[in-house]
Amino acid sequence: MNENQITGHPFKKGAPLPFKDKLKETLGMTENLKNQPRQLDKNYDPLQIEDKWYKFWEDEGCFAADPKAEGDHFSMVIPPPNVTGSLHMGHALNNLLQDILARYHRQQGRNVLWMPGTDHAGIATQNVVERQLAAEGLERHDIGRERFIERVWQWREESGGTIINQLKRLGSSCDWSRERFTMDEGLSKAVREVFVTLYEEGLIYQGDYIINWCPRCHTALSDLEVEFEEHNNGKLWDLEYPLADGGGSIIVSTTRPETMLGDTAVAVNGEDERYSDLIGKEVILPLMNRRIPIIADDYVDREFGSGAVKITPAHDANDFEVGVRHKLEIIKVMDEKGLMNENAGVYAGLTREVCREQVISDLNELGLLPATQDYQHNVGHCYRCQTIIEPYLSNQWFVKIKPLADRAIAAVKDGETRIIPKSWEKTYFNWMENIRDWCISRQIWWGHRIPAWYCDACGKMIVAREDPDCCPECSSSNLRQETDVLDTWFSSGLWPFSTMGWPESTETLKKYYPTSVLVTGFDILFFWVARMMMMGLKCMDEVPFKDVYIHALVRDEHGHKMSKSRGNVIDPLVIIDQFGADALRFTLAAFAAQGRDVSLSEARISGYRNFVNKLWNAARFTLMNLEGFSPDVAIENRNFSLAERWISHRLNQTVGEVTSALDEYRFNDAASALYQFTWHEFCDWHLELAKPDLFQREDEVRRTTAQAVLYRTLEQIIRLLHPIMPFVCEEIWQTLPRSAAAPKSIMQTTFPKVTLESDDALAAQEMAQVMEVITAIRNIRGEMNLSPGQRLEAVIKGSDENAINALQRNSDCIANLARLTSLTIAKDAQRPPQSAAGLAAGLEIFVPLAGLVDFAQEATRLAKELKKTEKEFAGVSNKLNNEKFLAKAPPEIIEKEQGKHQELEHKLEKLRVNIRTLEQVTES
RNA sequence: GGGCGGGUAGCUCAGUUGGGAGAGCACCGGCCUUACAAGCCGGGGGUCACAGGUUCAAGCCCUGUUCCGCCUACCA
Asked: Is strand B in 7 Å reach of the CB of A785?
């Protein structure tokens, strides 16, 4: 049987060690297993169980929110992924963090709603279906609007569920029964309600302005949907415009010479003496031979270029403003596809790019191109298709945003909504305070059609909640609906309440709005978060969320952005197949420090996969040793061993750490506290310490106590880990024995709580001494290259009676973990001849090594230790010799330093003695 | 142009009111040890970007310099 084939793991496994399994058989382990409840396989295989438990949770209704349920509630709305999308690491991180919160708050007994759904992503989705049509040799206009929209819905039926299923593979515990889509009937109704209301209040208006036009998508875009990119191959051309009166010329500079065909003025600064006598005169626009005026406007910067600017009101936002101020003629020279139109004279029909070449060469021929220089400047690109954006004059719909923004600013300033990490508040304010009106109309077909109608008879425009049959003005039934649709983000802005049934006043809305937290990436802070704030305050009169948690980007292991072109994309689904969802989840959580990007690599995920396996094996060990155990037997009055008191104390502390970390969105702190405790305390120490108690058969009470503590600790660990690693924890939990009163799923267990009784500082202190001694002996073993199989003796002496007593009480543990045949602990113990020496817990430890090692090696080891200690001692001494330190530092710090000083002094003395003794041994 | 974040071990990064520099991975040595070689035990490794300052005490606070990211902006 080949394990690699079963698990699909592509890594090499160590060569099989057949005798090991034989060994277990001879020891009767397989025989023992028959008496046990259930056992786990040796290696954790996520593929075997993940789908099973996900289905179980869904079938049991574990994700369902109940607005009628009592108690505190906790609610979130998912940032709806594009319906066209498929899961990438950004989604994985975003949804993981939400899922951790949802599962955590459920365990805290809260009534949780996590509202899922998808976004119709107007332009992106339209592009996808257009590409499909193109493959069939068709354009959308060939089949018409209605059939095109049908095609989009059909496509959505077929593949719109993809991303939802991928979210499920990750483990997302959304209430899927409530799944919404921004184009759903209910949400569409909300959109229309908001549009009409804002229109009626004068907050939506229609008008001719310069907007960002994508000639390829064939639509207007909002300012946010334009991505600026530095072009360093740009040029700045000087153009010479002759004066109409023949008295010379004026030079203007431009990066876009093709727009000169639409120039209707040349502007200079009114204060600029160089041009004062030209103001009011006219120039002849070359190539077009049109007379245009020279005007004065403050907009012109005298320092830049020649100090004169060509004005093209139809193709530049600033020029448009100038044009309005000076009532200039507006001439469009391009059409909606980015081709030059009839106003461009002989250039009509050329593309923008070709026209530019032609204009340059024609001007050059006329001698009107005095200079050209290389020039770096920013060029806007369409965020969906990267085509260069054209500032374009057209009739569009806008939201007057200032009044909405003011409230959204106030809500954050007043603390109604907290932005976490707080550093993002500044960005939020900065954007909100400088916000400009929002262009919401799009000239595409897929989206919410604007509820406005034009009467062909009398020209009246009607904006209405219900489709009108006839014109209220002239009763004509000759009505045409506006063909534009709304910006997708208009409907996304309503998401926190539209998904809950608004504008109806539903129970869900009453219970769960405002939501507790929104978890999202900073890339959509303006696009989405800011707009939800504005819309929520406007429509609900209340903020949409109390907290906004902004997480970082997922990058590759070197901090580079993942991109297809770079080839460094890590596909979460491939990772889930390979390592399991829990490993991916834990990795992301462990790296999700606030305000810092997540650097991800397969190696890291495989590292955390090892952690999953470690947990798995700890559970496996526990199960192997629970023979005869029942979770319902009370153990409160038993005598606990030091190890048991200590692990309970540490578990209790870990509960506290994890709880406060999750309450404060410090996901990485929660993950590392659990990692540290589970692996390096529970597995490395407690399991080893518990073994003798579990394996012996003489003292039944001791054995069952050890079982109970082991069981309890593990069971609490998997509850704590459940929000981060739900699958493996459920599998373990379901395999462990449970009391009859236990719920059906670990999802429904309560999150462990910090208890006063478990606090046991004494045990912690004593355990620290034991661990220190064990480590010291192991250190000698390690540095001397003595194999673990080599049994040793040890002698411990010292004047600290408390420490001696503590170690004597725990001598079995020490002997066991340090692998000793005998251990002598006494105040007046003798140093054995030819022994290695160590210091721990203020005591001296000797390990007789006669005949075992080369003592020169021991001398080196001690010399190293001495050097280290001397350095440390010098540091502390310096401090204590500093009078200012003694005068000004708080007493507890001074006391601490003094204690340290004494301890180190003692240690140095012992070390020196040991080195001398060793020298004598070696000499003799 | 404006703003924000960052520079800590070979790599990726933690470091919560200033008080003994940490983790994971990588590396070196030892190891089949009655859960786990996806493991166990031990170990080495840092002028906390640079320069000043405040302080008894600075990775942390202040000033400046430098390098790297990101966001934002209508300079033709």
From this structure: yes
Q: What's the number of CA atoms in the CB half-sphere (13 Å) around residue A923?
A: 6
The contacts of residue A268 (CB under 8 Å, 6+ apart) are: A274, A275, A278, A279, A294, A295, A296, A297, A300, A307, A308, A309
Helices (H), A550-666: 572-579, 581-591, 602-624, 642-663
Mean pLDDT, chain A, rounded, equals: 89
CB-strand contact A772/B, under 7 Å: no
Query: Which residues 332-371 in chain A have a CB closer than 7 A to strand B?
Result: none
Distance A868 CA to B54 C1' (A): 32
Whole-number Å distance between alpha carbons of A838 and A247: 101
Q: Which runs of E-coded beta strand occur in A222-355?
A: 226-242, 249-254, 265-268, 282-285, 290-296, 308-311
Q: Report d(CA A677, CA A110) in Å as an integer.
A: 26
The SS3 of residue A624 is helix
Q: Is A225 within 8 Å of A212 (Cβ atoms)? A: yes
- The reported pLDDT for the residue numbered A750 is 96
Please provide the DSSP assignment of A90-102 as one string: HHHHHHHHHHHHH
**Residue A11: pLDDT band with limits 50, 70, 90:** very low
Task: Tell me the angle at which helices A855-881 and A761-783 cross, rounded to the nearest 10 degrees.
Answer: 140
Chain B: nucleotides under 7 Å from a protein CB?
A: 3-6, 11-16, 19-20, 23-25, 29-44, 55-57, 70-76
pTM across the whole model: 0.91
Q: Tell me the torsion sign for CA atoms A350, A356, A357, A363.
A: positive
Å between CA of A901 and C1' of B55: 23
Question: Which tokens belong to A423?
Answer: 């550093």
Residue A923 pLDDT > 70: no
Question: Cβ(A208)–Cβ(A395) under 8 Å?
Answer: yes
Say which residues have a Cβ less than 8 Å from residue A741's Cβ, sequence separation at least 6: none
> For position A62, what pLDDT does the model report?
95
- How crowded is residue A102: how many other Cβ atoms within 10 Å of its Cβ? 26
Model confidence pLDDT, tens digit, residues A217-262: 899 999 999 988 877 778 889 999 999 888 888 999 999 999 999 9
A856-881 per-residue burial string, b: 16 or more CB within 10 A, e: under 16: eebbebbeebbeebeebbeebeebee
Q: Determine the Cα–Cα distance for residues A163 and A384; give it in Å rounded to an integer.
A: 19
Whether any strand B atom is under 7 angstroms from the Cβ of A882: the reply reads yes
CA of A320 and C1' of B72: distance in angstroms? 23
d(CA A576, CA A582): 8
